[in-house]
Amino acid sequence: MKEIESTTYSIHIGSLQMGPFEALIKKYEHSKKVILVDENTHDACLEYLLTAFEDLTDAEIMLLPAGEENKVMEVCYQVWEAWSEYKIGRKDLIINLGGGVVTDMGGFLASIFKRGLDFINIPTSLLAMVDASVGGKTGIDLGKHKNQLGVFSNPIAVFIDPGFLHTLPDEEKWSGLAEMLKHGLILDKNHWDLVKFIDASEDIFSEEVIMHSIQLKNKVVLADFKETGERKKLNFGHTVGHAIEGFFLHDEQRILHGHAVALGMRVEAQLSCDKNLLSQEENAEIQTVIGAKYPALYHNDDLLLALFELMKNDKKNAKQEILCTLLTGIGSSVVDIPITWQEFEAAMKAVFPHD
Ligand SMILES: NC(=O)c1ccc[n+]([C@@H]2O[C@H](COP(=O)([O-])OP(=O)(O)OC[C@H]3O[C@@H](n4cnc5c(N)ncnc54)[C@H](O)[C@@H]3O)[C@@H](O)[C@H]2O)c1
Q1: Which residue among 5, 62, 106, 208 sits deepest, i.e. has the most Cβ atoms within 10 Å of its Cβ?
Q2: Phi and psi of 19, rounded to 5°?
Q3: Distance, CA of 317 to CA of 326 (rounded, Å)
Q4: Nearest CA to ligand 1 atom 30
Q5: pLDDT by residue (tens digit) across 103-162?
Q6: What is the pLDDT of residue 342?
Q7: CA 218 to CA 318: how far, in whole Å?
Q8: Given a cut of 80, is residue 334 above it in pLDDT?
Q9: How remote is the CA of residue 328 from the centroid of ligand 1, in Å?
Q10: pLDDT tens by residue, 12-28
Q11: For residue 165, which of 217, 209, 119, 99 has the smallest C-alpha distance?
C-alpha cells in the first residue's frame, strides 16, 4: 500500500486488506464503532468491509440518505440523537464509508459531537478519493449555499481502495475527473497533459494517477492548511461552480459537484484570458478539452443574475468583492482576483449559449 503523509494523518492508497487498516481498527477493540454509509455505499461497499474485517462485525451501521440535498443539519440532528442513544463517547470510533457527502458530513458529525470523536475516512467515489480525502474540511450545506457550516478537522487516517470504483456510476467518475483536471490546471501541466486524455466511462483510474492528484493537493494543504493564501488555488472553478451547483441543488436537473466545477473552470479560464492572464491558445485548449467532456450550461439573464447573487456569498470574498482564483497558464494560478458583474456576464456569454 502506498502512503502520503498529510498534516496530522496518513492517506493510504491500495487494497484495504493490504495496509494498516486492520491494525488501526484493533486499537479500538474495546470501543464502539459506528460505520456511516449512504444508501448506495450500503449496497455497494459495506459488505466487503464487514466480511474482510471481523473486528467490524459488531459495528453499528448508520444509513444516511444519499445525495448532496441531504448534506444538511436536519440529517445531522438525527445522527447526533442516535449517537446519544447509543451512548457513543470520546473513546469510540466513526468510520465514514462513502463519497464526499458522507466523508464531509461524517467528519463534521464526529468533530462536533462531544467536542470531537476519532474518525476514519474511506472514500468510495473518485471525487472523494482525489479531493475530499485531503485538507481537513468537514461540513454541510445551508439552503443553496454550499458548505456554509463546517470546521477544519482531520481524520485519524484515510484509506483509498480504488477497488471501490468498480461500482461507481460513470457520471460520478466524470465528476471526480473534473477535480483531477483542476489539479493539473492550477499546479502541474504534466498532470493536465495526462488526465486530459482520460475517458472516465472507459478508462481505469490507476493507483498512480489517483495518488499523483492527491499529492498535488496535499502539497498545497501542507503549505497553507487554513486557506489564507496558496490553498485558495484549489478554489479554481469553484466560485462559479459552487453557484451553479447551489442554484440547481433542489432542482430536477441537479448538476453534480464535479460537473459544476468543470463548467466553473471554463468560465474562470475565460475570465483569466479576458484579463490577459492566460493566453488565448491555452484558453482555447481548456475550452475544447472540458467542453468535449462536460455538457454546456444554457443560460438566460435571470440565471446569470441568480448565479452572481450566489457568488456574492462565497466564503473567499473580502471587502464586498467577489474574489476568484484564475490561471496564469496551464499549470499555474493566482488567487484573490476581483471579478465584476460585467466581466462575469461577458465570460459566461463567451463560453456558453445564451437565450
Ligand atoms: N472536504 C473537501 O475538501 C471536499 C472536496 C471536494 C468535494 N467535497 C464535497 O464532496 C461532495 C461531493 O462528493 P461526491 O461526488 O463523492 O458525492 P456523493 O457523496 O454524493 O457521492 C456520489 C454518488 O455516488 C455514490 N457512491 C459513492 N461511492 C460509490 C461506490 N463505490 N459505488 C456506488 N455508488 C457510490 C453515492 O452514494 C452518491 O450517490 C460535495 O458535497 C462536495 O462539497 C469536499
Answers
A1: 106
A2: -105, -160
A3: 14
A4: 168
A5: 999 999 999 999 999 999 999 999 999 999 999 999 999 988 888 999 999 999 999 999
A6: 97
A7: 25
A8: yes
A9: 30
A10: 999 999 999 999 999 99
A11: 99
Which protein residue has the closest C-alpha to ligand 1 atom 44?
132
- CA-104 nearest atom, ligand 1: 1
Local confidence band at 318 (pLDDT 50, 70, 90 cut-offs): confident
Q: Which of 193, 28, 205 is nearest to 123 (CA)?
A: 205
Residue type, 19: G
Q: Name beta bridge partners: 35.
A: 61, 95
Distance 341 CA to ligand 1 centre (A): 31
Mean local confidence (pLDDT), 280-307: 97
- Nearest Cα to 83, choosing from 104, 57, 64? 64
Q: Residue whose CA is closest, atom 13 of ligand 1?
A: 100
How far, in Å, is the centroid of ligand 1 from the Cα of 60?
22
Residues 22-49: pLDDT tens digits?
A: 999 999 999 999 999 999 999 999 999 9
Cα(244)–Cα(247) distance, integer angstroms: 5
Q: Residue 225, SS3?
A: coil
